[in-house]
Amino acid sequence: MKASLFLYRLLSFSFISRFVGVLTRIPLPKCVLYPIIRWFSKKYGINTDEYEEPREGFRTFNSFFTRTLKTGVRPLDNSPNAVISPVDARIDQFGHIESSTLIQAKGIEYSLQGLIPSERHRYFHDGEFITLYLSPSDYHRIHSPVDGLIEGFLHVPGRLFTVQESLVRVLPRLFERNERIITFIRTSRGMVAVCKVGATNVGRISLSYENIFTNTAFRSKKERLYAESERKPVSRGQEIGIFNLGSTVVVLFEKGMITFSACTIGKKVTMGEKIGEYRK
Description:
This protein is of the alpha+beta class. Helix content is 19%, strand content 32%. It has 2 domains: 2-69, no CATH class; 82-278. Strands 4, 7, 9, 10, 11, 13, 14, 16 and 18 form a 9-stranded antiparallel sheet that branches. A 3-stranded antiparallel sheet has the order 3-19-17, with no helix packed on it.
């Protein structure tokens, strides 16, 4: 395992991922692309009845991977106090943030300031968090778990280690190391951060409310906080970003804000399903 970790640290996964990302965005004739889509769908058990196919058809593999869903296939939990899953995913971890420490895996921890290298990490001391892993079979658009106002975002360049469980359990502070974009959402109950974490072969993460994306050749840390008049209203279930290939979302909640409900580690959830509720 030590040899594997050394190899992971040595390889340039950012370059590999950019290369893979370029390949997935190359237009292909349908006679080539559609057999690839059928093979991929069968291998990963993708429900082809759920997604919306463009009128002209898919032109690239990435356009298939970032596919939209048909109206109504992901109903939102409309309970007044519900907090919903922002993605189709597996619950990898959830729970209380001990002061400023989160659990990455059993026996492995990481820090709020490492995950959010900004003064804004202070909002989430003693709060709650949930880690959601997206597999290749999952729908890869990211939605808001709450109603509120988008106050800004933070883009943190970094590595692109795989976020598969085998590495998550042995590589300390993995989510602090990988490239990520964090969306800050102000609600009537407190602050929420939706951390979109990159991984190997994630060609890019893009935002739906801002023209920015990750894994470019020249990257630098960027934090943009909107003026009060520029803050963007967002509804529970509204799209806020896209993963181009799979990865992980870590959602953070301010202290005393929510209680997780019916969450267990390893459980599959769908976008719109209730994962918690506001405390009264």
